[in-house]
Amino acid sequence: MTTGSPKVPKPSDPQLVRRSQSSAREAWRMFEIIAEFVTATERLQAIQPAVAIFGSARMTPGHPYYKVAEDIARRLSDAGFAVISGGGPGIMEAANKGAYAGTSPSVGLNIQLPHEQSANTYQDLEHTFQHFFARKVMFVKLSCAFVMMPGGFGTMDELMEVLTLVQTGKIRKVPVILVNSAFWGGLLDWVKGRLRDDGMIGVDDPDLMQVIDDPQQVVEAIFNHYQSRGFEPSPAEREAELAL
């Protein structure tokens, strides 16, 4: 038996061809992602100041959560804030519907999903994303406050994403408002009684969230937060957000 150099695949080797095709697809995917960011930025950068409202896609128009979200959105819109939702049904529709009836833009950042997500009809401006992470970045870049209505895994994901970015200083400190104390109470008790007490988060980190049940107080809390500093991020904050 003789030993020699490892066998080098021939250009026509099917395995090598498949690898080459896969690499080419990945390279083109990167260009698609860049284009998605560029297009979204050009279309959406003029809507500020804006407030994002998150919540369950499964709430029907007759549900109390839906009605509260619609009320909050209308008040925000009339107060001069564009309102951004995920563009789909449930709480997202309620947010867009309330803002659509108000004086400021109703914006939907939709996502292509195999189920649950279809664009609602209450949008002055709609933009559809292919990639979840690109959509999340635009939510964060555009929003000066986040209103969290009751929701499921998606809402929890969005809440924890925003809290992590604020906690780590990747974005400026913004109002993160949880609406419906009965719904969020168990989570807050766990955050304070387990995460904080076990040293998993900082002592003051639970204060990054506030619980408000009254729609008008939600609007007032956002104004109160920005009363002394204004809605525009500082140059240093803008620079930090470029590294999202």
List descriptors.
Rossmann fold; seven-stranded parallel β-sheet; 7 strands; globular
Measured distance between first and last alpha carbons: 57 Å
In CATH, the architecture is: 3-Layer(aba) Sandwich
Total helical segments: 8
Largest sheet: 7 strands, parallel
Helix fraction, binned, reads 40-55%
Class by SSE composition: alpha/beta
Q: Please provide the count of β strands.
A: 7
> Globular, elongated, flat, extended or rod-shaped: what is the shape?
globular
Topology pattern, helix = H, strand = E? HEHEHEEHEHEHEHH
Look up the CATH topology. Rossmann fold
Describe the structure in your own words:
- With 244 residues, the chain is of the alpha/beta class.
- Helices cover 48% and strands 13% of the residues.
- It has eight helices and seven strands, in the order αβαβαββαβαβαβαα.
Which secondary structure elements does this structure contain, and how are they paired or packed?
Elements: H1 14-44, E1 50-54, H2 64-78, E2 82-85, H3 91-100, E3 106-111, E4 125-129, H4 132-142, E5 143-148, H5 153-167, E6 176-178, H6 181-196, E7 210-211, H7 215-226, H8 235-241
Parallel strand pairs: 1-2, 1-5, 2-3, 3-4, 5-6, 6-7
Helix pairs in contact: 2-3, 2-7
